[in-house]
Amino acid sequence: MNSPSPVPVANAATYPPATAEPSFQDDDLTFRACSALHGSESSEQGAPLLLVLPGGGYQMHADHEGTLVADWLSSIGLNALVVRYPLAPHRHPSGLRRVQDVLIAARTGALELDIDRTRIGVIGFSAGGHLAALASTAAGSAETSAEARVDLSILAYPVISMTNQPHTGSLTNLLGSDSTINEQQALSAETLVTAQTPPTFLWHTADDGGVPVSHSLLYASALAAHDVPFDLHVFERGEHGKGLATGLGALEAWTSLCQSWLAGHGWLPTPR
Questions:
Q1: Average pLDDT value for residue range 140-145
Q2: 8 A C-beta contact, residue 105 and residue 51
C-alpha cells in the first residue's frame, strides 16, 4: 500500500519561512552541552545532538519534558537542544518546518555547536513524539534535504495515529476541527515509515489514559514491517505525561533502558 501524500492545511496560520537561520537569540531554543563523564571519552567529532520536543497536545509545551530532559541527556554524555515548536493556532506544517530548520542549522554548522554533525536525533514526548515521528519519517515535505535527516529517534508515549484512537486535542490543534480523512491519514506516522526511518526507541504504559498504547504498537509494527531496528517497552501501569518518571517505581527504569540502547548504538561516550 502506498503511503498517503502530504496534504497542506488550507486557511491556517503557519510558521513563516525563516528570513534568517535559527539562532540562539531565538526564545524557542535552549541548549545543554554534554557533560564530561569521569573515566570516559567522546568521539573526536564531538558528542551527538538530540533535539528535545516536549509534549502538550500542540497547545502548550510541557516544561518537565523540555529542559529537565535536556539536563538528563547532558548528564549521560549527549548534547541536547530543546525546541519549542509552533503551537495552535499554527497548523501543520509549522512545527515540522521549524524542527527541520533547526536540524539543518545544527547539521550545517550555522548554529556553531561543538557536536558530531553526522549524528543528530530527536526525542519527543506525547504530541512532541508525534512531531519527532514526522521528522523521522520526513513527513510533510517531498523535498526534504539530506541535511534534515534524523539519525535516531526516541519516542515517549507518543501520539502516532490521527485515525486510530486519535488524541483529539492534538488532532484538532494540528489540523483544525474540520480536517478531512485524507489530511488525518497523511499525518498518521505509522503509515509514513519506510526502510529509511532511523532506529527508534519507544516506551508507553499499557493503561495510558491520555494516548492509548496502541499508538506505540502501531508504530513499532510499521518499523518491524520495514526492518527498521527498534526497542519497544510497555510498562503495565503509569499515567500519561510523566516525563523522566523520577521516583515512580518501575516506570523510571525507562531512562536506564534508553541509556543502554543509546550506548548499544554507539551514541554515548565509551569507557577509556
A1: 63
A2: no
Contact 53, 85 (CB under 8 A): yes
Residue type, 153: S
pLDDT at 7: 38
Q: Under 8 Å CB-to-CB from 211, ≥6 apart: which residues? A: 126, 157, 158, 159, 167, 204, 240
C-alpha 145/C-alpha 147 separation (Å) is 5
Q: How far is CA 214 from CA 21, 58, 72, 220, in A?
A: 38, 20, 27, 10
CA proximity to 123, closest of 261, 22, 269: 261
Q: Find the helix or strand (DSSP H, E) in which 74 lies.
A: helix 67-75
Half-sphere exposure of 219 (CA within 13 A, CB side): 37
Predicted confidence (pLDDT) per residue in 2-30, tens digit: 333 443 443 455 555 544 578 877 889 99
State the residue for C-alpha cell 561543538: 114
Residue found by looking up cell 497536545 in the block: 57
Alpha helices in 81-240 (DSSP H): 94-108, 127-136, 168-175, 181-186, 214-225
